[in-house]
Amino acid sequence: MAKIMIVEDMIVIQKMLNEILSIKGHQVIFIAGTGQQAIDYFINPNNECPEIVIMDHRMPGKDGLTSFKEVLAINETVKIIFVSADESVREEALASGASGYLIKPITIKSMLNIIDDLVT
């Protein structure tokens, strides 16, 4: 099972993802409400590094695409699944190294399938 970070500004989605991922045996090691919080987490050498990051795009402050690129600059081995209602950044996210891209509203099955593909 995977160690996962959730980067999402909507609390209801944070809770839903956390609960579902935990039920499926994954360990959510950090939940960030903004892209900057995710970047700050990766900068701190004392923090446990997730294997997978689930990244929203539209968030306060830094958007997901900017945050995603900064996280990959810090840790190029982390797998990032982009989740957004905004399909306009899909090509750029995938070209920049995203491991997957899901359009909101997502299905739990699609999220779990991508995670399973990344950890096997």
Topology:
Layout lengths: L2 E5 L3 H13 L3 E6 L2 H9 L8 E5 L7 H11 L4 E6 L5 H6 L4 E4 L4 H12 L1
Parallel strand pairs: 1-2, 1-3, 3-4, 4-5
Helix pairs in contact: 2-3
Structure description:
By secondary structure, the protein is α/β, with parallel strands linked by helices. It has a single domain (3-119), classed as Response regulator (Rossmann fold, 3-Layer(aba) Sandwich). Helix content is 42%, strand content 22%. It is built from five helices and five strands; from the N terminus they run βαβαβαβαβα. Strands 2-1-3-4-5 form a five-stranded parallel β-sheet. Strand 1, helix 1 and strand 2 (27-32) form a beta-alpha-beta unit. The protein is globular, with a radius of gyration of 13 Å. The mean pLDDT is 95.
Kindly provide the radius of gyration, computed on alpha-carbon positions and rounded to a whole number of angstroms: 13 Å
Biggest β-sheet, characterized? 5 strands, parallel
- String of helices and strands: EHEHEHEHEH
The percent range for strand residues is 15-25%
Total beta strands: 5
What count of structural domains? Answer: 1
The backbone outline, from C-alpha atoms, is globular
Q: Runs with pLDDT <50, length 5+?
A: none
Structural class: alpha/beta
Terminal CA distance reads: 9 Å
**Assigned CATH superfamily:** Response regulator
Q: Strand order, biggest sheet?
A: 2-1-3-4-5
**Can you count the helices?**
5
Q: Please tell me the CATH architecture by its name.
A: 3-Layer(aba) Sandwich
CATH class: Alpha Beta
Short description:
This protein has five helices and five strands, in the order βαβαβαβαβα. By secondary structure, it is of the alpha/beta class.
